[in-house]
Design brief:
heterodimer; A: 371 residues; alpha/beta; Rossmann fold; 7-stranded parallel β-sheet; 5-stranded parallel β-sheet; 18 strands; 26% strand; B: 407 residues; 9-stranded mixed β-sheet; two-stranded antiparallel sheet; 11 helices
């Protein structure tokens, strides 16, 4: 067993976007601060590539005790193998206790190879972090002050992942699960420029081009109200097939009414199942940008409507931190109804017009009785 | 034969033998499977299907084969009984199929996290490549053993799907394979050996493709980690590109240019082959030129092998200490609940307070305080009646719901 007693401090990998730290970087700072405080260790932000003094200061303002930055010219444009080399050298020399990345495309591009090269574990998709102990029954040994990496596991439960006997303990956090700390401009911290010692190196790959992509039309993370649709919209309460476009139109109406009446940013969401059903009626109306859940976006709006969504764990982990959940489902056994603050066992084709009418007319509207 | 024609022929037979290895994973078919009381899953009883993201990898591998020729190999890890039907189903597809499949199946590999999985898979990929190198070596060793021995050996290896048509073929259309030309005296032993050695070098230029992630919770770590594992095994860096939406192989067949998405940026990466790609769900294969397809078809391997190859830890020469649960740095602790159930209010069913009440008295007992919207459940029936009668408590309505949601 190796001696890891000299491994200390919690590191977080930070990304610069449009001249300032990305929203997700602020989230990973909050995640790191929480565990660093419990460990009584420093929180160190790592920034590779160009960053202004103001940007680096932002890391301190949002929770870091120190920033290590490296602006070697070889780090622009972003090139995965180079970043992996620099991070591996830095980590090998400085020996952090834990190293946390954001689970976005960049985190997924570099963190796994850094972990493999360091021969340590990588707990991905973490939605909560803590410090705790782990008893290894085989070794009859108790490990204390470990990073507890909490993630949805194999689609059925939430599991705690530990990396007891390797360092650093590496994790990626899923965006949308940690709330950035309140900025504190009085917070003091230190800055250190790191010079990569590995030389220019020669790589079997080269970046030929970088292009900015248009911003997504829908940003669910900004929405205060999300109205999400699931496969349940294909049938009404009597089990009759319905054109999903009807439910979509109701949802759009509900969104518009809420936006107009309360001046809240509202968006439409969808389950993976609904999107992957590739329904002709909804073509082009709902896209991957609308997808809530493990393979889509994780959201925590003030109000979340789950319309015709049974509530698989993959969907639930993407929205369960919503402040108020309204679930509409005719199946009383639907898991979504169990986690909803407002479970509504009713035909969604009855409920949605009622809701719209209440918002526009102040009453539930005329009851339409089917004959 | 004219020089340029001869040269083109050499280039052609050397290059169109690419091994394209697709990494596949079997995942539980249902996404809403509930855990048992102990939180432990009975994976054996689950229906296992191909990870849907991996279909794009199969398509990409098939595209490479149609574009430059070679052989597609599916590689997966897990219980053979569960995975065999999945990989077998891929043979039957004429397009988007695979030529051969390998299942890494060994109790020693069970319980692996991404690091131990990537280590095993990297060893599996290397072994698969070496198997083809060894086949060429066997031909090299038989070149001088006489016509009959050479033909017998070549036929044996060809039928195991280990030799490209360019080395040996029993297809009537392919008359100019190295072995045929040797046997016919069109090629000297030394020249043939030179060509075979060059083919061995080319076999080192393989491409590994994988899906971007799996549906059962992993988040795309295994692909990049397999690239790192192969770098470790080969002692040189094997590049990777994640989230590939489009790629082309350059005419020299030594480089691959991939377009991939990183957040709000699209990046074009030019990589030396061998390399590894994880294929985005957005990927759509282009249609290769029909002439090209015809040309490369002549240089594929025999065809499809019917039964999956099953390898144990021994077969892939892996260090048992780095496999399975024991080789995994991460340990899964006991499962925990998804969170406490919330206090629930049901429209037209729940009884709630309509106003704030500091306290209410009944038989000398004091209840409260109550806030507007608080659930009135659990109060003595007599008190409840009183409160309902004076309008303090009533049914939770859609109107009340709207007020609470947007207050």
């Amino acid at each position: 067993m190796s001696d890891y007693s000299d491994y200390k401090d919690v590191w977080v990998y930070l990304q610069v976007e449009d001249g300032s730290l990305s929203r997700e970087s602020l989230e990973v700072l909050a995640a790191g601060r929480k565990v660093a405080d419990k460990l009584n260790q420093k929180l160190i932000g790592v920034v590779l590539g160009p960053a202004t003094k103001e940007t680096l200061k932002q890391a301190i303002t949002y929770g870091a005790s120190k920033v290590i930055y490296c602006n070697d010219e070889s780090l622009t444009p972003y090139f995965n193998l180079r970043y992996i080399d620099v991070l591996t050298e830095l980590t090998t020399k400085r020996k952090p206790y834990a190293f946390i990345f954001v689970e976005n495309e960049l985190g997924r591009d570099i963190a796994p190879r850094v972990a493999y090269r360091l021969n340590t574990g990588l707990a991905t998709g973490t939605i909560e972090l803590d410090i705790g102990e782990f008893f290894n029954a085989l070794e009859k040994k108790k490990y204390e002050n470990l990073l507890v990496q909490i993630r949805p596991d194999f689609g059925t439960r939430i599991a705690k992942i530990f990396t007891p006997s390797r360092r650093p303990q590496m994790a990626t956090i899923r965006p949308g699960n940690f709330i950035p700390l309140e900025p504190d401009t009085k917070r003091r911290g230190s800055y250190e420029e790191y010079k990569y010692e590995g030389g220019q190196g020669s790589y079997p790959a080269v970046v030929q081009d970088m292009k900015e992509l248009p911003k997504p039309k829908v940003d669910l993370r900004e929405a205060k109200v999300i109205i999400s649709l699931g496969l349940g919209i294909l049938k009404d309460g009597k089990g009759n097939a319905r054109n999903p476009r009807e439910a979509y139109d109701f949802a759009v109406k509900l969104k518009e009414v809420i936006q107009a009446k309360y001046n809240l940013k509202a968006e439409l969401g969808a389950t993976r199942a609904l999107l992957y059903a590739n329904l002709k009626e909804l073509e082009g109306l709902l896209t991957h940008d609308n997808q809530v859940g493990q393979t889509g976006v994780t959201v925590a709006p003030d109000v979340y409507f789950a319309i015709g969504i049974s509530g698989s764990i993959q969907h639930r982990v993407g929205m369960q931190k919503s402040k108020k959940i309204v679930a509409v489902n005719t199946d009383p056994g639907a898991p979504m109804l169990k986690i909803a603050h407002y479970p509504i066992v009713e035909d969604l084709y009855d409920f949605m017009p009622k809701m719209i009418s209440m918002l526009t007319e102040g009453n539930e509207g005329r009851k339409i009785v089917a004959t | 034969m004219h020089f340029h024609k001869h040269y083109a022929y050499i280039m052609y037979i050397l290059k169109s033998i690419m091994l394209i290895i697709t990494l596949l994973k079997g995942v539980p078919s249902k996404t809403t499977q509930s855990a048992s009381l102990t939180g432990i899953l009975n994976r054996e009883s689950m229906e296992i299907v191909l990870n849907p993201h991996d279909l794009k990898a199969v398509e990409a591998a098939d595209y490479i084969k149609r574009r430059v020729g070679g052989k597609t190999i599916a590689l997966t890890m897990g219980p053979e009984g569960k995975l065999s039907p999945i990989v077998r189903s891929l043979y039957t597809a004429e397009v988007y199929g695979v030529d051969e499949s390998i299942i890494l199946s060994d109790r020693k590999m069970a319980g692996a996290d991404t690091l131990a999985t990537a280590y095993a898979v990297a060893n599996g990929v290397k072994t698969a490549v070496e198997r083809h190198l060894n086949a060429v070596d066997e031909i090299l060793n038989t070149v001088d053993s006489g016509k009959d021995a050479l033909l017998a050996k070549a036929d044996e290896l060809y039928k195991q799907n280990l030799l490209p048509n360019s080395i040996y073929s029993n297809l009537p259309a392919v008359k100019d394979s190295i072995v045929n030309r040797l046997v016919n005296g069109e090629l000297q032993s030394d020249a043939a050996k030179g060509l075979l050695e060059a083919i061995k070098l080319e076999l080192g230029r393989f491409i590994v493709v994988a899906g971007i992630k799996t549906t059962d919770g992993e988040t795309g770590s295994v692909g990049p980690q397999v690239a790192e594992g192969l770098s470790e095994l080969y002692g040189r860096v094997l590049p990777h590109a994640t989230y590939v939406e489009h790629f082309e192989i350059e005419a020299d067949l030594e480089h691959l240019v991939a377009d991939r998405v990183l957040g709000q940026v699209s990046q074009r990466l030019r990589m030396a082959i061998p390399c590894l790609l994880t294929i985005s769900d957005e990927y759509e294969p282009a249609l290769p030129n029909p002439l090209e397809q015809y040309l490369v078809r002549r240089n594929n391997y025999m065809g499809k092998t019917s039964a999956p190859i099953v390898w144990t830890a021994n077969d892939i020469h892996a260090d048992p200490l780095r496999l399975g649960l024991g080789g995994s740095p991460t340990i899964v602790g006991p499962g925990i609940d998804v969170g406490k159930p919330p206090v629930q209010k049901m429209v037209d069913r729940s009884l709630v307070f309509f106003t704030h009440l500091d306290k209410v008295e009944l038989d000398g007992k004091i209840y409260g305080p109550f806030d507007k919207g608080d659930l009135a459940d659990g109060l003595p029936p007599q008190l409840m009646e009183q409160l309902r009668a004076n309008g303090s408590v009533g049914q939770f309505t859609v109107q009340a719901l709207v007020e609470e949601l947007f207050a």
